[in-house]
Amino acid sequence: MSLYTRIKRSLLGKPLPTSAFAEERLSNAAGLAVLSSDALSSVAYATEEILLVLILAGSSALKLSLPIGGAILLLLIVVTLSYRQTIRAYPGGGGAYTVSRENLGLYPGLVAAAALAIDYVLTVTVSISAGVAALTSAIPFLSTFTIDLCLLAVFLVMLANLRGVRAAGNLLMLPTYGFIASIFLLVCLGLVQQLSGYVPFAVAPIPPTEPLSLFLILRAFAAGCTALTGIEAISNGVMAFKPPEWKNARLTMLYMSALLGVMFTGITYLAHAYHIVPTAGQTVVSLLGRQIFGNGLLYYITQATTLLILLLAANTSFADFPRLASLLARDGFLPRQLSILGDRLIYSNGILLLSLFAAFLIILFQGQTNAIIPLYAVGVFTSFTLSQIGMVLHWFNHPTPGWKSRATINGIGATVTATVLGVIVVTKFLLGAWLVVVMIPLVVWLFLAIRSHYQTISDRLSIVGIEPHRYPMRVPCDTVTHPAIVLVGQLHRGTLEALDYARSIADEIVAVHIDIGTTDRDSFQQQWQQLEADIPLAILDSPYRSVISPLINFVSEFEAQHPNLFCTIVIPIFVTRHWWENLLHNQTAWFLKAALRVKRSRVVTFVGYYI
User: Fold this and answer.
1) pLDDT tens string 354-393
2) Are 419 and 362 in contact (CB under 8 A)?
3) Is 43 helix (H, G, I), strand (E, B) or coil?
4) How many CA atoms lie within 13 A of 103 on its CB side?
C-alpha cells in the first residue's frame, strides 16, 4: 500500500464491501443521536435568540418570551405531524427535494434542494460556532482561539463521519443522551427550587433601545424558530434506519419532537422565572446553570455536554447533505462524484464538500454565532413549505383510505410554515437573510447549468444511430506480438474510438469493464454484442466499489500471460472545451495511470474524444 493509503486506513478504517451496507443501518437509539442532534441542540441557543431580540425593548419585554415560546411549541407539533405523514407516504426517504420535484415539478424541487443545501451548510457553521461559544463561556481565555477551535471541530466531526454511519452513531450516542439528561436535570432542579420558594437574583431594569412593536415581537418569534431547524432530518434519512425503516423513522421522530418540546419549553420558562438577561460571553444555558447548579461539578458537566452536542449537532448535516447531494448528482444537477459511495459506505465526497463550505463560512464570520443566525432558518422553512404543499398534492393524486385527514394535516403544516417563512424573511431580511434569498436562485441556476453540461456531453457521446460492426470482424492470430487491454466504462463514442485505435495497433485485444454494483449486465452485454462482438469483454466484480484495484489485478495477470511483450493499456477519455468543466467529471483515468505506473506497466495510452 502507498503511504496515502496507509494513513487513510489508519484514520478511517478498512474499506467495507457493498454487502455490509445493511449492517451499517441505525437502531432507533443511534438514529436519534445521528439525525436529531441538530434539532435537540437548538435548545441551547433558541431561547437566547428570542431574548436577544426582546431585550431591545427593555427588560420588561422579556416576559413575552413565554407566549412566543408557546407559539413555537405549537409550530413544532404541526411540523412533526406533517413530517410523520411524509415518512409514511415516502418510506424510501421523503426529503423536500424528492417530494417537491415529484409533486410540484422540477423548479420547485430544485428550489427546495437549494434551500436545504444552504441550510445544511449553515447548520454546521452555527452548531460549531455555538459549541465553541459554550466552551469559551466556561473558559473565557479560550475566546482568543475561537476560529481555530471551530476549524478543529469541523475537522474532527468530518473525520468521524468519514469512518461511516455506524461509527458516527456510536460517537454521538453518549454526548446526545448526556446533553438530554443534563438539560432535564437542569429543568427539574430549577422547577424544584422555584417551588421551594427560591428567590432568583434581582436584575437591574434595562432601558429600551427600540419601541415594543408587532414587528419586534415577530422578529423575536422568527429568531426562536431556529429551534425547529433539523427537524426534517429524519424524513430525509429514512433509509438509514434498520427495517422496517419508515416505522422506526416515524417513532424516532416522535421521540425527538417530544424531547425537543419539553427541553425548549423548560429552558424558556426557567429563563423567565430566573430573570435571565443575555450577556456578552455567557449563554443563557450557562447563566441558568450558574444560578441553579452554582459553579460546581454539575455546571461544568452541563456546559461540557452542551459543548459536545452543539459540536456534534453538525452531524445532522453531515448525515443528510451527502444524501441530498447524491440524489442531485444522480439526476445530473451536481457533479457525479457526489453520487459515489466511498470506502466506508458513505458519500465521502459530499462530506468533504460540506466541510469545505462550513470552514469557509466560519472564517468569513469569525466563528460568531449571532452573526450567522440571521441567515439561518430561511432555507429550512422554504423546504418545509414546499414539501408540505407537495404532500397535499400527493394525497389528492394518490387517494387512499384516510387521505383527506392526511391532506388536512399537511395543508395546515404548509400554511403555518409559509406564514413563518414570510415572517422570517421580512424580519431578518436586512439583518442578513437577504443573502440566503439571493443565494437560493443562484444555486438553482448552478444546478441547471450543470445539468445542461451533462446533457450536452450525453448528446455528443450518444451511440444512437451508429451502425453495428463498422469494421471487419477481427480474426484471432496464431502468434501474438502486441496485446492490448481497453478499459470500458460506458459504451459511448469515445469508447468506440478507443476500441478502433486498439484494433489498429494490436493483434490481441480484450475489453475490461468494472462493475461497482450499478451495471445492468444483460443490457450491457446485448449492446456489446451488437457493436463490438469481435472483441472479448471481461466484466469484473468490485465488491469494494473500486475501479483501480480490480483493473490493476487484471492487468498484472494479463501481462504475466504475455511475458517479454509490450502490453498496451488503452484508456478512453473525453476532452472538454474548458478546464473548469473537468471538475464535473471523475478523474479516474489519471488515478489509473498513476496506479499503473506504480505497477510498472510500460505502455499506457489515452485516446481522447473531443467534445
Assistant:
1) 999 999 999 988 877 777 777 777 888 898 899 889 999 9
2) no
3) helix
4) 25
Which residues have CB under 8 Å from 39's CB, separation 6+? 227, 228, 229, 230, 231, 233, 256, 260, 316
Q: What is the dihedral of CA 361, 363, 367, 372, to 10 degrees?
A: -30
SS3 515: strand
Burial of 476 (0-12, 13-18, 19+ CB in 10 A): exposed
- Which pLDDT belongs to residue 593? 78
Q: What is the pLDDT of residue 548?
A: 82
Residue 444 CA: distances (Å) to CA of 54, 339, 421: 36, 18, 19
Indicate the pLDDT class of residue 608, thresholds 50, 70 and 90: confident
Rounded Cα–Cα distance for residues 603 and 593 (Å): 10
Residue 78 has pLDDT above 70, yes or no: yes
Q: Where are the alpha helices (DSSP H) in 60-95?
A: 65-89
Calculated CA dihedral for residues 325, 94, 37, 120, nearest 10 degrees = 30
Please enumerate in sequence order all residues whose Cβ is within 8 A of that of 536, keeping only pairs 6 or more positions apart, or say none: 509, 510, 511
Helices and strands: H and E segment counts in the chain: 22, 5
Query: What pLDDT score does 60 carry?
Result: 86
CB 195 within 8 A of CB 187: no
pTM above 0.85, yes or no: no
For 333, the enclosing helix (H) or strand (E) is none
